[in-house]
Amino acid sequence: MSRTVHIIGAGLAGLSAAVRLTALGRAVVVHEATAFAGGRCRSYHDASVGMTIDNGNHLLLSGNHAALDYLRNIGAADRLIGPQHAEFSFVDVLSGERWMLRFNDGPVPFWIFDSRRRVPGTSPLDYLPLARLLWPPAGKAVGEVIVCKGILYERLVEPLILAALNIDAPLGAARLAGTIVRETLAVGGRACRPLIAREGLGATMIEPALTLLQQRGTSVRFEHQLRAMRFSAERVEALDFGSETIALDSDDAVVLAVPPYAATSLIAGLEAPTEFRAIVNGHFRIEPPLEQPPILGVLNATVQWIFSFPGRVSVTISAGDRLIDTPREELARRIWDEVARVTGLPATLPPWQIVRERRATFAATPAQDAKRPGAVTQWRNLALAGDWTDTGLPATIEGAIRSGNRAAALIASPS
Ligand SMILES: Cc1cc2nc3c(=O)[nH]c(=O)nc-3n(C[C@H](O)[C@H](O)[C@H](O)COP(=O)(O)OP(=O)(O)OC[C@H]3O[C@@H](n4cnc5c(N)ncnc54)[C@H](O)[C@@H]3O)c2cc1C
Question: What global pTM score does this model have?
Answer without folding.
Answer: 0.97
